[in-house]
Amino acid sequence: MPGDRAHPRAALDADSVRDAYRRWAGIYDVVFGGVSAPGRRRAVAAVNRLAQTAGRRVLEVGVGTGLALPHYRPELEVVGIDLSRDMLLKAQERVAKERLSAVHGLLEMDAENMAFADGSFDIAVAMFTASVVPDAKKLYAEMARVVRPGGHLLFVNHFAADRGFRWWLERSTAPLARILGWHPDFKLSDIFGPETRIERMEPCPPLALFTLVEVRR
Ligand SMILES: C[S@@+](CC[C@H](N)C(=O)[O-])C[C@H]1O[C@@H](n2cnc3c(N)ncnc32)[C@H](O)[C@@H]1O
User: Fold this and answer.
1) Three-state helix/strand/coil letters over the chain
2) Which of 23, 37, 43, 90 could bridge to 65 as Cys pair (CB 3.0-4.6 Å)?
3) Model confidence over 151-161: pLDDT tens digits?
């Protein structure tokens, strides 16, 4: 609840996300690629495993520069969406350069208001994106809508600590969300409700900074 916070959370909106990722696009892979790699690899490994029984239609929400794309099994049908044209251009370059046959489309689209019909996908995955979108509850609702009943939703993200130095740092940097392009104080309860069917949570390196969450639709 906003009232809980010692520091006000700066609101992100679509324009501030586009502005932030216009600035990040050229250096994103160098700055974030390394630290986020283990979490991304685990999320894609989970998608590859689940797809064997759930089906091959995969949506990657907030695909960014496409760092995850080379790791999907080639028989999958992956569609990636992102709000930032600058990030998508990098992803398109990667797909062309590496001839990634699993990638069936890269679209400029708002994850909070997707153009896909209900139940279009078997699996939807959001890597390091839930704390970036302006409204994570809307993101969740949309991902649940476009995944068929019985399908899977996966998230890998940093979730805020509830004590100690990290807690202090995350709360202190919360007002910088519009400059950073994400909410440093993002909590599990910012996206999941009591009704969410969380099937598995797995801490990811480095230092369990990130968590992989698997949800059943
Ligand atoms: C931190 S980056 C993560 C990129 C990628 N998933 C990765 O693992 O590196 C977050 C991405 O989410 C995108 N994004 C933020 N809000 C969005 C929205 N409402 N709809 C679609 N993409 C969004 C940003 O443009 C950015 O590319």
Assistant:
1) CHHHCCCCCCCCCHHHHHHHHHHHCCCHHHHHHHHHHHHHHHHHHHHHHHHHHHCCEEEEECCCCCCCHHHCCCCCEEEEEECCHHHHHHHHHHHHHHCCCCEEEEEECCCCCCCCCCCCEEEEEEECCCCCCCCHHHHHHHHHHHEEEEEEEEEEECCCCCCHHHHHHHHHHHHHHHHHCCCCCCCHHHCCCCCCCEEEEEEECCCCCEEEEEEEC
2) 90
3) 999 999 988 76
